[in-house]
Design brief:
The complex is a heterodimer of chains A (505) and B (109). Chain A is of the alpha+beta class and 505 residues long. Chain A contains 18 helices and seven strands. A seven-stranded antiparallel sheet of chain A has the order 3-2-1-4-5-6-7, covered by helices on one side. Chain A is globular and about 80 Å long. Chain B is mainly α and 109 residues long. Chain B has one domain. In chain B, helix 3 runs antiparallel to helix 4. The longest helix of chain B has 32 residues. Classes of the chains: A alpha+beta (505), B mainly alpha (109). Chains A and B meet through helix 1, helix 5, helix 6, helix 7 and helix 8 of A and helix 1, helix 2, helix 3 and helix 4 of B.
């Protein structure tokens, strides 16, 4: 870079932002939705009525199911019901090499739940960091994109000469490019501390996937030992191979609850049925930044307490506090709304940056846009409006797919990707300026339709006022955006993009 | 934010393309390499409990990575950018080799 430092940073910001923008837009949007993951999950299982179930009894019901269906498992995980979610999620590993298995039980009976099969808010949560791919591949794509975004953020700040005055600058009438630049600056600078925090702490959540070399050198790759020494996991105990009768879970859970004031979240049985079996009572995180669940470990046959997770050392505390900051478990309703709005602003910063790249390179009137410009325009449209269309279709599918459909939870995901892909196709087949307006309107209509379909298909309209209000707000925001965008883009410039965008959009 | 002039693409000749590709490759692989070496080295030598050293080094590694990438794209020539990574990278590799030989990482039974 022969030019000065600021110019080379401007170049770096432009290109780092472009290559990471599409993935990061999806990560920001689904991550922002994940602040309301439990609310989304409640909405997506309208059959469930709040019911209090004693956690110890529930743990025994889960264990009874697993004793029948997974007697040879190496570990059982029983996620205990909350009052507003009277379900038992049981997970188990048949061996250390097989993938985890799962069943959802009715907390009151211990039998498989009759509520509609859905991944609920977990679908968007997992998409947020795995893109619904193979976990390791998805996490590496998201992690590498987040690192590039961190580079784009730092170089963007360096580039910014007038960071304070730009805060008050919005020249939407000067030219299309100026307007987009100012919109990018305002949303970027206004929530800049959030953008930096959420990007860095997001990278920290994937730290040992992206940067395993500390564990590799100091622990010779033994990650389990690292987490035990860091005070984040209780020490494991190898199976003996001798069977032994375990104590019932309820009294152990009650004793653990006597030590910890937080509610119980999960019961874990390691090596069930073995003489060396252990029972772990896992509690919800206490209020405070650090992301660490209190745990009490019992010997499953004698009932002796063999381990408790103590306090963390400073670096481990900082590390877990970063995870806590990212997940915002500490945030009450007001702070959660603020985080949600900051997440929306982050998504808007990325979206305006992507559009700005294309607007700044618009050809002169009459000239045809080059391949790269058409590619970027197609990907912009397919991502920025395609993803919201997919999410709205996902919510609609939850209400409209038959409740007893085979593979129902998978079909909901299929509708999400199908609607998104279809939206991208439509966008590619039509002139760009019109398509922004049309697809924005379509997305708005889909979101506005969610509360109506909800009211028509369930009798719980009044229980979901918050969710439905959010859908209407998002729908109106999209409708407003579609109007604004179509007005400021000037005449239709060219066909949207080449057909080979289809696979990527 | 970049000036409008900086946003407009220059007409890229093959020389420029090669230089840009070189920097991207150096930033990605060189930057990650230096960050990885620093993490492995610091995890062994930081004067604190082993788990603390790993947590500290891993948290620092991403700042090192971003700093290295910024360096690669701000250095005046590709050669300088390369040297700026190769020298600390070489020192870290030598330090890591020594630390692996000297620091006890065997598992206490």
């Amino acid at each position: 870079m022969k030019q000065g430092f600021r110019q080379s940073m401007a170049w770096l910001h432009t290109w780092a932002g472009l290559v990471t923008g599409w993935v990061m837009f999806c990560v920001f949007v689904t991550g922002t939705a994940t602040y309301y993951r439990t609310d989304i999950s409640h909405w997506m299982r309208p059959e469930l009525r709040p019911a209090a179930v004693e956690p110890g009894i529930a743990a025994e019901r889960g264990a009874a199911y697993l004793k029948v269906h997974a007697p040879k498992a190496v570990a059982w995980y029983i996620a205990l019901p909350q009052e507003e979610r009277p379900l038992l999620d049981v997970y188990w590993f048949d061996s250390f090499d097989t993938p985890i298995r799962q069943a959802t039980l009715d907390a009151g009976t211990g039998q498989p739940s009759t509520a509609r099969a859905t991944q609920g808010g977990d679908f968007l949560y997992r998409f947020h960091f795995e893109l619904q791919m193979m976990p390791l591949i998805g996490r590496w794509i998201v992690g590498a994109s987040a690192l590039i975004l961190l580079v784009a953020l730092v170089s963007g700040i360096v580039t910014h000469r007038r960071i304070f005055s730009d805060f008050f600058t919005f020249r939407r009438d000067k030219s299309a490019q100026r307007g987009w630049l100012d919109a990018h600056n305002v949303t970027g600078v206004l929530a800049l501390p959030f953008h930096l925090m959420i990007t860095y702490t997001g990278i920290v959540t994937l730290a040992f996937t992206l940067m395993p070399w500390g564990v590799a050198s100091a622990y010779r790759g033994d990650a389990l030992r690292f987490f035990t020494e860091a005070g984040q996991n209780p020490a494991g105990r190898a199976a003996t191979g001798r069977p032994a009768e375990a104590l019932p879970l309820a009294p152990l859970m009650a004793r653990a609850q006597g030590e910890v004031s937080e509610p119980l979240e999960m019961a874990i049985v390691n090596n069930p049925g073995d003489a060396a079996a252990t029972v772990v009572a896992v509690f919800e995180e206490p209020k405070g930044l650090a992301h660490r669940h209190p745990q009490v470990v019992f010997d499953a046959t004698s009932g002796d307490v063999i381990d408790r997770l103590g306090t963390l050392k400073p670096a481990a505390h900082v590390f877990t506090s970063f995870l806590g900051l990212h997940e915002a478990h500490f945030a009450g309703p007001a702070l959660r709304v603020l985080f949600f709005l900051c997440g929306l602003m982050g998504s808007a910063t990325i979206a305006t940056g992507l559009v700005l790249w294309a607007v700044a390179r618009a050809p002169k009137a009459g000239a045809a846009p080059g391949f790269s410009l058409r590619l970027v325009r197609g990907l912009n449209l397919g991502t920025i409006l395609g993803l919201p269309i997919g999410i709205a279709a996902f919510f609609l599918a939850n209400r409209l797919l038959p409740v007893d459909l085979v593979g129902r939870a998978t079909w909901e995901g299929g509708v999400f990707f199908g609607a998104w892909g279809l939206a991208a196709l439509v966008g590619l087949a039509r002139p760009q300026a019109r398509t922004w307006r049309e697809m924005g309107t379509a997305a708005a209509v889909l979101f506005l339709g969610v509360p109506f379909v909800d009211v028509l298909t369930t009798d719980r309209g009044l229980d979901f006022l918050g969710f439905d209000a959010a859908m209407i707000a998002i729908g109106l925001l999209l409708a407003w955006g579609a109007r604004k965008v179509s007005r400021y883009r000037g005449p239709a410039r060219a066909r949207a993009a080449a057909p080979d965008n289809l696979a990527r959009a | 934010m970049p000036d409008e002039a900086a946003l407009r693409p220059p007409s890229p000749g093959w020389r420029l393309r090669a230089a840009v590709a070189g920097r991207v490759a150096l930033a990605a692989f060189g930057g990650y390499g230096v960050a990885a070496l620093a993490t492995a080295f610091l995890s062994l030598v930081l004067p604190m409990a082993r788990s603390e050293a790993v947590a500290t080094a891993t948290l620092l590694s991403f700042a090192i990575l971003v700093g290295a990438v910024i360096w690669v794209f701000s250095a005046r020539t590709l050669g300088r950018a390369f040297l700026g990574l190769a020298v600390p990278g070489g020192l870290l590799a030598a330090g890591l080799w020594l630390a692996l030989a000297l620091v006890q990482t065997a598992q206490p039974a």
